[in-house]
Amino acid sequence: MAGELLALAGGVGGAKLVWGLSQVLPPEQLVVVVNTADDEEFHGLQVSPDLDTVMYTLAGLANPETGWGITGDTTTVLSALERLGAPAWFKLGDRDLATHIRRTELLRKGGTLSAVTAELCRALGVKQRIVPMTDNRVRTSLLTDQGVMAFQEYFVKHRCQPRVRDIMYEGADWASPSPAFEQALQEARAVVYCPSNPFLSLDPILEVLGVRRRLQQFSGPRIAVSPIVGGEAVKGPAAKLFKELGQEPSALAVARRMVGLCSVFVLDTVDQSLAQEVDALGMRAVVADTMMNTPEDKVRLAKQVCGLASPDA
Amino acid sequence: MAGELLALAGGVGGAKLVWGLSQVLPPEQLVVVVNTADDEEFHGLQVSPDLDTVMYTLAGLANPETGWGITGDTTTVLSALERLGAPAWFKLGDRDLATHIRRTELLRKGGTLSAVTAELCRALGVKQRIVPMTDNRVRTSLLTDQGVMAFQEYFVKHRCQPRVRDIMYEGADWASPSPAFEQALQEARAVVYCPSNPFLSLDPILEVLGVRRRLQQFSGPRIAVSPIVGGEAVKGPAAKLFKELGQEPSALAVARRMVGLCSVFVLDTVDQSLAQEVDALGMRAVVADTMMNTPEDKVRLAKQVCGLASPDA
Questions:
Q1: ipTM rounded to 2 decimals
Q2: CATH homologous superfamily for A5-138+170-309?
Q3: Is the minimum CB–CB distance between A44 and chain B shorter than 8 Å?
Q4: Angle at B29 between CA B283 and CA B5, to 5 degrees
Q5: Per-domain boundaries in chain A
Q6: In chain A, which ranges are continuous DSSP H helix?
Q7: Does the beta-carbon distance from A98 to B104 stay under 8 Å?
Q8: Contacts B80 to A, Cβ<8 Å
């Protein structure tokens, strides 16, 4: 099976499938394009949470309990920063901080986020390409019942508790796909939408200038895996957001958002009653066990996805 | 005894006497002006080694074995940075790094080094004023037999081994004294030159625009403590530098450099044979035990210095 597979991913949920794909595909056949609209500056350092989650996962460093951060990391610096009067609500481990210090230095020296990410991956021994969706600045902000909030403020500081009325992706209209994303859009043999939050992880990628149209016109297989299972988000606030934005959360609701963007929609076995309605949206519904609790789960789902992405599927 | 004492200091040697003074004087009577020509950027972070040594010393955090850094500090971040390809020859502990992260953030937000240092001191509970010599950029560089080197490159990376032919204080001609230094030059009742390296710690302060002249014209007591004892530097490369720059290292050689700048010159008991020659330079030679190995040593010397700084001395 030649050619690249282009996976679009956010943080923890997406990283699980990406890890599975990394076990199934040769490294040169996997390009992971990652949401960067969650990026934020903390303590003057550039933090790219989703890029780091995917990078740490493929480097074998990810904390298996949280899904983010580095396993066994300490928080000596954060405690010292707090003593110095800095806000410490965003938890940053010591080894994780080294990534942000290095990234910030290389960016300030003029490197693009693509180039800096590639250098960090190389240093950590990651052979797959992990690529920011754009080298431009895009930032998710949320209009909530408590006012407008930057993403991390909503997500971490307020633990997704405020009611969301609208979501903005500031800068997306002026952002170009990163060079490797651009190339993958032209050359990839298949696209995989990882089971990431539709509003907070995949939409920012889709809103980058021209990306939605390019994916609508993409001629190869386009496989989406539902992040909503049995009406609940596997992780995070996706179900809550569906409700607050006026829709019943379900795999079908996810599929409706993917009309024109995907050719195969993978729903969990618990949602198989929705398969016919998904089919009716003009995409092929495939029922699978999408819960990725163990390494074996991840590999099994990745194999199924790769099967669906092959020319004879 | 009213009025402020203005102490001029570099790093470890100066910090010892400063600590003694802090035990003898009420906090509001001590202004410590610190060399910043050793400041350097590492990993994109602003490091002010001498300011931090004095600050950590007065905060009770200093590592008693090295004299610099924070006692018991770990190096998790530095190891991770090294793994990411960053140069790691300048040892930075984790808690120490928090200081540099915070400083860099506050400077980037527009704070002066004076304001940022005051904020760091406040957070660490330091009540004495610790003041950079200038808020402008001054950098020591050395012309050596291996070419021109930035200070930390010479001092840490090459461990002071290259032969020095000349020393430059880049930016000093355009640098103004920091506001608190300026005020202390006008209002202090006495000046103390701590036993810091004459070339690498005190000269940069003296080279800041107008400072040498202001100290020459200063009307109160001006007490210098020799950093050369028995022809050797108590710590660091001062004796080696004297030789390389063509002078025999001795307390007398230090005193010669202070002509017009100091009224009382404190030499160690082992150098009492030089007292008469020092007197002949137009300053009063005072013999004392200047070795500061224990807290008691530091307090005893500080008391003597304060005695010499009092109006009836």
A1: 0.91
A2: CofD-like domains (3.40.50.10680)
A3: yes
A4: 15
A5: 5-138+170-309, 139-169
A6: 12-24, 49-59, 76-83, 94-108, 113-123, 151-152, 179-187, 203-207, 211-216, 238-244, 251-257, 275-279, 295-309
A7: no
A8: 94-95, 97-99
Beta bridge partners of A169: A140
Nearest to A81 among B44, B78, B101 (CB): B101
The Cα–Cα gap between A69 and A222 comes to 30
Q: Residue B281's CB: how many other CB atoms inside 10 A?
A: 15
Query: Kindly report the CA angle at B296 between B295 and B302, in degrees rounded to 5?
Result: 90
Write phi, then psi, for B78 (nearest 5 degrees). Answer: -60, -40
Minimal Cα–Cα distance from B76 to chain A, Å?
6
Beta bridge partners of B232: B229
The helix (H) or strand (E) run that includes residue A286 is: strand A284-288
**What's the mean pLDDT in A105-124?**
97
Mutate to test the interface with A, among B51, B78, B90, B94 (most CBs of A within 10 A): B94
Structure pTM? 0.94
Other beta carbons within 10 angstroms of residue B109's beta carbon come to 9
Task: Note the pLDDT tens digit of each residue in A15-55.
Answer: 999 999 999 999 999 999 999 999 999 999 999 999 999 99
Torsion of CA B64, B65, B71, B73, to 10 degrees: 170
Spatial contact of A1 and A285, defined as CB atoms under 8 Å apart:
no
Q: Is the pLDDT of residue B1 over 60?
A: no
CA distance B235 to B137: 26
Q: Which residues pair with A134 in a beta bridge?
A: A177
